[in-house]
Automatic annotation (TrEMBL):
Involved in DNA repair and RecF pathway recombination. It comes from Kribbella sandramycini. GO terms for cellular component: bacterial nucleoid. This is DNA repair protein RecO. Residues 1-79 form the DNA replication/recombination mediator RecO N-terminal domain. The lineage of its organism: Bacteria, Bacillati, Actinomycetota, Actinomycetes, Propionibacteriales. GO terms for biological process: DNA recombination; double-strand break repair. The gene is recO. InterPro entries: ARFGAP/RecO, DNA_rep/recomb_RecO_N, NA-bd_OB-fold, RecO, RecO_C.
């Protein structure tokens, strides 16, 4: 079978037979790949814990008819070590993995930006460099942007009239002017819109200045925007630690 090498983040795994697992991987060059990891559930497995969710690994894979097969695995970063023992980090991390799995739909289609964004988010989450809620909100917005659903937080999402604008509507694509505002649009505080824009662009000095009320309002708007454009809520989202 032809061999290829790639870096990957393990999104999820499930059992196959008595000793094997199927791992769903987000690779740097080949997008989403499902691959068999043979013998990984045996205590003598040479792969050990290197192919658990949250792991960043360098892999050699053999191309199979339906599923590829992992033949070599070297650890790049074991992000799970800093995530799984902290409830807020773990629940946030599961949303990050599920989001990537959801947004990268086609297998074997390049998704380099998604891979790099997820690797960066897991690194920051595992070190505790930033609060889990901020990591998640920024990740959701930027993942949607990469997938072609970038919300507007400046100009009107419908007519392009320069902002700032007060109304926010997920179906319209973000903030909208008075003329374009659909019924039942949200009316977030101006500071919330500023915070949302900072999360989308990675302006952390501005994002970190937001007070708790602003962050909570932004989180609700991001969840509504994501759910609208993905039709179904993420399964892992209700388990988030809302006290963070």
């Amino acid at each position: 079978m032809p061999l290829y090498r790639d870096q990957a983040i393990v999104l999820r795994t499930h059992k196959l037979g008595e000793a094997d697992r199927i791992a769903t991987l987000l690779t740097r060059a080949n997008g989403k790949v499902r691959a068999v990891v043979k013998g990984v559930r045996r205590t003598s497995s040479r792969f050990g814990a290197r192919l658990e969710p949250f792991s960043h690994v360098d892999l050699q894979l053999a191309t199979g008819r339906t599923l590829d097969v992992v033949t070599q695995a070297e650890s790049i970063a074991a992000y799970g070590e800093g995530i799984v023992n902290d409830y807020a980090r773990y629940t946030t991390g599961t949303v990050l993995l599920e989001t990537s799995d959801r947004l990268v739909v086609e297998e074997k289609e390049p998704a380099t930006q998604h891979h790099l964004l997820l690797a960066g988010a897991l690194r920051v989450l595992s070190t505790g460099e930033r609060e889990p809620s901020l990591v998640l909100d920024s990740f959701l917005l930027r993942s949607l942007s990469i997938s072609g659903y970038a919300p507007s937080f400046g100009d009107c999402a419908r007519c392009g009239e320069p902002g700032p604008h007060r109304a926010f509507n997920p179906a319209a694509g973000g903030v909208v002017c008075t003329s374009c505002r659909p019924p039942a649009s949200a009316m977030p505080a101006p500071t919330t819109v500023t915070h949302l824009a900072a999360l989308l662009t990675g302006d952390w000095p501005t994002a970190l200045r937001a007070d708790p009320r602003t962050r909570r309002e932004a989180t609700g708007l991001i969840a509504a925007f994501f759910t609208y454009h993905q039709e179904n809520q993420l399964r892992s989202l209700p388990h988030l630690d809302l006290t963070q």
